[in-house]
Amino acid sequence: MKYYVQIYLGISALLGLVACASDNGVTDEGRARLGLEVNIGTSATRATYQMTQAVINNPTAFAEGDAVGLSVSDAVGTVYTTVNTPYTLNGTVWQGTDIWLNDTPAMVSAYYPYNSTTDPTAISMDCTENFDLLYVAYDEDNTVNNYRPKATIALKHAMSIFRLSIFSSIGAATISAVELSGEAIRKAGTLNTLTGKYTFSTTATDILRAEGLSVSVSQDVNNPTTLDFYVLPTGTDNSYLIITLTIDDKNYTATVSNRPFSQGRIYEFPLELGDGRVLTVSSVMVKEWDVYRHNYDHNNNEYYDVEPDTDD
């Protein structure tokens, strides 16, 4: 389920303060309050397994009291210096400290979930933790100012999902462990949500392993067994991924080579346990984790429209 929520930055909007504003919404002082439209593509797709074997239980939509961390800057970072300011969902409105715009173009960045101690330039990411970050980086081509004070942004996933779709053509089989390795992924690192750049904790090849599983492999090619994992993709061109499954106490390996893996996508790997108990992988399928739409129905309860206001 996707929620399209219009954020209005400023509690005073509830009081309808529009005094001393011109027809175009700009105050006599040349200021306008920032309005923010956030498209949250948090679909119901969630990784079912993580490397610690626990079930991932991330929310599929914002709830009352949730907060995003907002940062606002101009191109040189001298006019607007807001960093990691919280905006909390109250009903259908996000409330926080007013941010005022002048005629200098401003860029907007946000991340979810908000943490007061987080440095948005270095948010910790770890495939073994129950955590999926949504964010949008600064974009010089998507700016606002006092005459155009409403920013439209779409939060995206910082990680990706690797989906293993497995079937057996040689009879019953049970998976007890899954291992992912190769230069395509890393276990941990930090993400600068203002720029969208990763810094990985190590340059060495990481091994991500889920153990203690007991998953029966489907024998129906049209209804394979699926296992989803959060991964931290390196984005490296022509990288490789090694998939190792422990099936009935024996290890079976398949390798995917010469392709990049990027954040915010679902990669599906069709795997077959076939003759000679050989594990093979066919063409990898790729799709966007979420699809954002910008044609809204104003009568739909999932959309809330509050125009940016001005001070007096």
Model description:
The protein is an all-beta fold and 312 residues long. It is built from no helices and 25 strands. The protein has a 9-stranded mixed beta sheet, with no helix packed on it. Strands 12, 14, 19, 22, 23 and 24 form a 6-stranded mixed beta sheet that branches. Strands 13, 17, 18, 20 and 21 form a 5-stranded antiparallel beta sheet that branches. The two termini are 39 Å apart.
Keywords, separated by commas or semicolons:
312 residues; elongated; disordered N terminus
Mean pLDDT: 75
Q: Point out poorly predicted stretches.
A: 1-24, 42-60, 291-312
Order of helices and strands: EEEEEEEEEEEEEEEEEEEEEEEEE
Class from secondary-structure proportions: mainly beta
Q: Specify the helix fraction band.
A: under 10%
**What is the makeup of the main sheet?**
9 strands, mixed
Question: What's the number of helices?
Answer: 0
Shape: elongated
Q: What is the terminal-to-terminal distance?
A: 39 Å
Number of strands: 25
Based on CA atoms alone, the radius of gyration comes out at: 23 Å
Strand order of the largest sheet: 6-5-4-8-10-11-3-1-25
What share of residues are in beta strands?
Answer: 35-45%
Short description:
This protein has 312 residues and is an all-beta fold. Helix content is 0%, strand content 45%.
Topology at a glance:
Elements lengths: L2 E6 L23 E2 L1 E6 L26 E7 L7 E10 L2 E3 L4 E2 L5 E6 L10 E4 L7 E3 L13 E8 L2 E9 L5 E8 L3 E2 L1 E5 L4 E4 L6 E4 L4 E2 L8 E9 L5 E9 L2 E10 L5 E10 L3 E4 L3 E4 L14 E2 L8
Parallel strand pairs: 1-25, 3-11, 12-22
Antiparallel strand pairs: 1-3, 2-7, 4-5, 4-8, 5-6, 8-10, 9-15, 10-11, 12-19, 13-17, 13-18, 13-20, 14-19, 15-16, 20-21, 22-23, 22-24
